[in-house]
Amino acid sequence: MLGLIVSLIIGAVLLSVWWLTGGIGRLHPQMGAPDTAPRPPTVPRSRRQIELSFAPVVQAAAPAVVNVYARKRARSGNEEPFFHRFFGEPGQREQNALGSGVIVRDDGIVVTNNHVIAGGDELIVVMADRREYEAEVILADERTDLAVLRIDPKGARLPHIPFRDSDALAVGDIVLAIGNPFGVGQTTTMGIVSALARTQIGISDYQFFIQTDAAINPGNSGGALVTMDGRLAGINTAIFSRTGGSIGIGFAIPSNMVRFVVEGAVDGGRLRRAWLGATAQAVSTEMAAQLGLERPMGVLVQEVYPESPAAAAGLQKGDVILSVDGFEIFDPQGLRFRIATKGVGKSVTIVWQRDGARMSAATSLSGPPENPPRNITHVGGHNPLTGATIANLSPAFADELRIDLTEGVVVLSTDRGSPASRLRIRPGDIVVEVNGRKVESVDPLMDLLAMRVDRWRIVLRRAGQLYSLDVRS
Q1: Rounded to an integer, what distance in angstroms lies between the CA atom of residue 108 and that of residue 64?
Q2: Is 221 a catalytic residue?
Q3: pLDDT value at position 91?
Q4: Domains assigned to the chain
Q5: What does the radius of gyration of the chain's CA atoms come to, in whole angstroms?
Q6: E strands along 142-173, which residues?
Q7: Residues 243-260, buried b or exposed e (16+ Cβ, 10 A)?
Q8: Is 145 a catalytic residue?
Q9: For residue range 392-443, what is the model confidence (pLDDT) as tens digits?
Q10: Number of separate helices (H) and strands (E) present in the chain
Q11: β-strand pairing of 94-105 with 430-434
């Protein structure tokens, strides 16, 4: 009798477990149909499930993650501020910066952060199996904070990590961060994609970062952010921290930007950045209401350069760009990223709103033109700009100088102690007017400065604001 009772109890327990874990499909209590509602996660039911591991992904990816040493030989007591900050006072014979890198091609192409190798006289790449190689820089791009190195494996095929389409990532995806934090040795941490398209980080010109909570610390810079299929989702670049250590907010440059930089590096060592030919600003809540948008989205076009891809698409001042190739745009940084990663000669489809109506068009991207020629000129004579070096702005030169304006005359530098320097005229200032006459290029400006007058009135544009200088001759 006791055995029968025990059997009944065990049977009831097993039936309950079967019922709670789904069985072969529970019946709906009223309809009699299978219940397809989401079920709570079940506990592991076998030893194999308990022993699930990321080890196969790490074993495939980790050999392609390297240490990068940037050695700088001390020349005098006047050392670079970067090395002061991290390596103490001058006087050392040799100084080292340590970061990580990723082999992305089996013939020896390595990607790291530009800030890892900046200022280094000699670069050494050390692989996970302790092989060491001298590296040469084939492209260092401060604007993306990426650098592409080449090592010579003497004909050997090196382990490498293939690129993942970073646009296919989703918040919640599991990722692994592999690098050399604090120089302790190669380390793998696990987390998720916490956010995408972070654009207000202030690290580089092309801000469009993947945020992750995988532990990233100093030394991880330049290392790999890897997805569960063993592909490269991004290059770990920075952390948000009040202490210098990881607090679960790390940022990686998306692989689509990394791939663009690598392709430019191996194709002649030069980046050909695509150009839309329009400047824009983010749409605020108040602006969205005025523009008839249901929510703050898109960017408001402020200027369209003539004969540009934007002009060819039909964009006009006052239009609101909503998306590029199906990707929503929320700020100028996002627009810049979408254009930059497409490349020169590629076509994009732009959707925008004008007077409440939605419009779209495809346009072929080009590089920014250098028209007019920059005509770099040093100002002499007796005038407020004496001692300044000036040049014509063009879309290409403005992009090089990281200036939004694409026309006018820009100040490149001022001689120490010169009239321009004493009047606190700064590099990056745009000369707008001289004595009430608009300035459009260098040659007419030089003619104006050659005039003999009793009083000078110079109008400058600086950081979007106009400043006026009144000077007696």
Answers
A1: 10
A2: yes
A3: 46
A4: 59-151 (2.40.10.10), 166-266 (2.40.10.10), 278-364 (2.30.42.10), 377-472 (2.30.42.10)
A5: 29
A6: 146-151
A7: eeebeebbbbbbbbbbbb
A8: yes
A9: 999 999 888 888 777 899 999 999 999 999 999 999 999 999 999 999 999 9
A10: 12, 25
A11: unpaired
A 10 A CB-CB count for 278 gives: 26
Strand partners, 136: 150
For 330-361, what is each residue's pLDDT tens digit? 988 889 889 988 889 899 999 999 998 999 99
- Catalytic annotation, pick one of 100, 141, 145, 308: 145
pLDDT tens per residue, range 54-102: 888 999 999 999 999 988 765 544 433 433 333 334 444 455 668 899 9
Contact criterion met (CB below 8 Å) for 156 and 106? no
Identified catalytic residue from 100, 115, 141, 255: 115
Which residues have a Cβ under 8 Å from the Cβ of 339 and sit 6 or more positions away?
274, 275, 276, 324, 348, 365
Nearest to 332 by CA among 279, 403, 376: 279
Q: CA-CA distance, 126 to 134, in Å (whole number)? A: 9
Question: 99 in helix, strand or coil?
Answer: strand
Residue among 105, 202, 213 at smallest CA distance from 159: 105
Catalytic residue of the set 100, 166, 204, 221: 221
Q: How far is Cα 307 from Cα 343, in angstroms, rounded to an integer?
A: 18
Contacts of 55 (CB under 8 A, 6+ apart): none
pTM: 0.76
The answer for residues whose C-beta is within 8 angstroms of residue 436's C-beta and 6 or more apart is 457
Measure Cα distances from 466 to 254, 312, 405, 430, 448 in Å. Answer: 37, 31, 14, 9, 20
Q: Identify whether 204 is a catalytic site residue.
A: no
Look at residue 176 in the predicted model and tell me its pLDDT: 93
CA–CA separation, 103 vs 258, rounded Å?
12
pLDDT of residue 160: 96
Dihedral pair phi/psi, residue 187, rounded to 5°: -135, 140
